[in-house]
Amino acid sequence: MENIIGRALVTRNGQFLFPKNGQLTNDELFGFIDWNSNNMQPRLRENMKMYLGEHPILKQAKKQFGPDNRLVVNKAKTIVDTFNGYFIGIPPSIQLDKGENNDKLQDWLNSVSFIDKLNELSKQTDIYGKSIGFVYQNEDSETRFNYVSPTKAFIIYDDTVEREPLAFVRYEYFKNESEWQARGAIYYADQVYRFDSDQISPEAIPNPYKMVPAVEFYENEERQGVFEQVKSLICALDDGFSQKANQLAYFDMAYLVMMGINLKTDKTGKPKIDIANNRFLYLPNVTPGSNPKVEFLSKPADDEMQENFIQRVSDAIYEVSMIPNLNDENFAGNSSGVALQFKLLVMQDKANSKERKFVQSLKKLFKIVFSVGQVLPETDKNAWKDLQIHFTKNVPSDVAAMISAAKDAEGLVSQRTQMKLLPGIVDDPDDEIEEIKKEKAEYIKNAQEAAGSLPDFMKQPEDAGDEDGQ
User: Are 223 and 229 in contact, with CB atoms under 8 Å apart?
Assistant: First the structure.
């Protein structure tokens, strides 16, 4: 743990700590901001640049001679998009028990585009290792939600064992005359303070949520992005492909050597051929007695060694990141559901760990959302405890196997649990059960109407008894 300034501390994984119930001074606030900008931000921005394809090889000094290809094989983006698509490509289910409160929750989720923003927040955690969900009031005093990049925001936790949020800081840098200065706001549980020009405003704005209105989402306890462990391998792969391209370019530029052959010349004695542009080496005078020769001048190369290097680095990237290469031949063909699960097992374990952390963060987020009595009545502000949050991993479905499993479960589990065995087919088990009931009622009604239209001789007498008339 490192002391930044005053009472401000930072842990090894980049968490900011401060004494419980304390309030930051100017020096302590800007100490946190400077540390985030100087120590955390460079690594986070490097990760984003790699995701966007701005790799270090593009910044290397130019070669003085020969081909100088700069190829970017953007495995960082492939890894992030693959894992994020697997984790949240199918929208997660966030629900309360059926009723008016759940209807209000779903309306709010749709009105703020919650699932779309959660997808972007999840992608940020894959790139940076963490992101922040922020709840705020808009101009109409409506509860809204958005995600914030950790490059310009952070949460300060108290120094107790519980590590409860103490303040949320959101800022931007603006140029003031000849220097850049941070401007933003500190959100405490009860008050919000603006700051600018290295000064915290003494005027406080009430915080309607009565708690810090932000929640940290993270990939793992170390706050590392999904490709953080393989950045050096990705750079090595860029180098390998670039060197391979340089090698091919060199062979394309190979010179044709003509030895012991006399070409027609002009008045000055020069051969009638564009030697430079056609890449010729013209050597008419050679050792007496030697035979004429025409051949390409080339340097030795080991293509197999280069290909092996590129393949081994590519394999290591997927192995260390624990994200399988879905274009690999191991995923070709029609694998059964069980076989596919084994191939995805490592990534599934990684996604399950992320899911557990996301569920915790989402419940903390909805605790804030429900606290002001706008999304749900204030009497139901503790409904966040009853939230049912379910993530469905995005994998090809073995529909026949799922239906078979659901049929086999009949009579062993409730109908609702049975419906849960059909993810991707049944989105909402309760709605599906209700639809089944409606279909059965409609079937009975149609059967009764059909029976009423039968001829008299086909109808069963109402007083029909046994053979003795009893």
Answer: no
294: β partners: 258
User: Which residue ranges in the chain fall short of pLDDT 70?
Assistant: 177-178, 250-260, 272-291, 294-303, 330-339, 396-401, 424, 452-470
Burial class (CB in 10 A: 0-12, 13-18, 19+), 282: middle
192-226 tens-digit pLDDT: 999 997 899 999 999 999 999 999 999 999 999 99
Measured between alpha carbons, how far is 272 from 266 in angstroms, rounded to an integer?
A: 6
- Residue 22's pLDDT is what? 92
376's enclosing H/E stretch is: none
Measure the CA–CA gap between 32 and 200, rounded to whole angstroms.
Answer: 14
pTM to 2 decimal places: 0.78
The torsion of the CA quartet 69, 225, 119, 352, rounded to 10 degrees, works out to 130
Specify whether the CB–CB gap between 144 and 179 falls below 8 A: no
User: Could you tell me the two tokens for 423?
Assistant: 């993810």
pLDDT of residue 433: 84
DSSP letters for 134-189 = EEEE-TTS-EEEEEE-TTSEEEEEESSTT--EEEEEEEEEEEETTEEEEEEEEE-S
Best CA proximity match to 143, nearest among 116, 167, 108, 114: 108
Beta strand extents in 67-138 (DSSP E only): 93-95, 130-137
Residue indicated by tokens 């370019």: 249
Give the residues across from 413 on adjacent strands: 410
What is the token pair recorded at 467?
């053979």
Spatial CA neighbour of 4 closest among 39, 23, 22, 28: 28
Residues 6 or more apart whose CB falls under 8 angstroms from that of 411 comprise none
Q: How many CB atoms lie within 10 A of CB 394?
A: 16
Please give the pLDDT value at position 381.
93
Block residue for tokens 């983006």 = 77
Q: Determine if residue 142 is left, alpha or beta; phi over 0 gives left, psi from -120 to 50 gives alpha, anything else beta.
A: beta
| 140-170 pLDDT tens trace | 889 999 999 999 999 999 999 999 999 999 9
Residue 86 CA: distances (Å) to CA of 271, 326, 344, 392, 425: 66, 11, 10, 9, 17
- What backbone torsions phi and psi does residue 159 show, to the nearest 5 degrees? -90, 20
